[in-house]
């Protein structure tokens, strides 16, 4: 099928949409643009990690990347560490793309890696951290967001020896983790910036499409209770189809796919790409991890400044529910910003297009700057 001279736009929307749903293979990413520090990678292994389910792993591997170097203040406390948390299906590599790194990490930019120590972990079940596809398959512990945040804290404090964070940024699932950080470790970070989520339990349509996605995998006869030798293609195709809709950006897709041939070709290439990189057990665990998320009970205990941003074209967190406007009133030093849908937003994936929201990051950094002697 021809797409009438729209090849560049087609390639752009394919890559952009992959970013929206955070299921992009590592090979798609490069190191940050010129002027930003090159990343360093490592693994921190936690012995005998105990999960909230009561299960344990003899060794939990936590993969991470860092950019820049830690600096300590006059009191010996790390003063420049920034923890950035990825979305479902992503990894720390998700942030080493031009739309994020080239906007924030370069010389003179807001998170200049010559000034800040950037920490990019892979959550449990993601990237190069321990996950079901390593070999345990459906016998891997049933981790949840509590386990993921606990492991992040261990990595930061014990693995990297960082005793304080200047900032926590979280996108999508990482946005939800940021709320948990704010409540669980109220004095650990100077400020937090949750992007693209809600600080309430996952219910309504958001819960329904997640249930449908997981049911598609579990009901595929080829899944074999997680002990498959070849991927359950039917279940994965349905899961990928649901993710396409959940992560879609209607304005961007209409611009890049203005006719039926373009849309048809996009869907074909998208499905080929996703089926080639997804592992059914990993996907199932990743979405099941959100099953008991609900930080709403302790929002009034958050003491650090919070700059919370959602986009009006976000299918996963629709603004018409009014939840954000209601809940932000309970956050003492919180501000909520709803970005209007436009040709600059990218649906749920707006969280990774830093140029759209960097002005609010600038405000947050200025407002939360530690005072001399503190």
The coarse silhouette is globular
- How is the largest sheet built, in terms of strand order? 1-2-4-3-5-6-7-8
Order of helical and strand elements: HEEEHEHEHEHHHHHEHEH
Please give the radius of gyration in angstroms.
20 Å
In DSSP terms (H or I, runs of 4 or more residues), the helix count works out at 11
| Derived structural class | alpha/beta
CATH class assignment:
Alpha Beta
Distance between the termini: 63 Å
Largest sheet: 8 strands, mixed
From the 3D structure, determine the CATH topology. Answer: Rossmann fold
Mean pLDDT: 91
Helix content: 25-40%
Unreliable spans are 1-16, 19-35
In CATH, the homologous superfamily goes by the name Alpha/Beta hydrolase fold, catalytic domain
Total beta-strand segments: 8
Strand % is 5-15%
**What's the architecture, going by CATH?**
3-Layer(aba) Sandwich
The tally of structural domains comes to 1
Protein topology:
Elements: H1 7-21, E1 40-50, E2 56-67, E3 81-85, H2 101-104, E4 117-121, H3 145-159, E5 167-171, H4 173-184, E6 192-195, H5 204-218, H6 233-246, H7 250-256, H8 260-277, H9 280-288, E7 306-311, H10 323-327, E8 334-339, H11 354-367
Parallel strand pairs: 3-4, 3-5, 5-6, 6-7, 7-8
Antiparallel strand pairs: 1-2, 2-4
Helix pairs in contact: 1-7, 5-6, 5-9
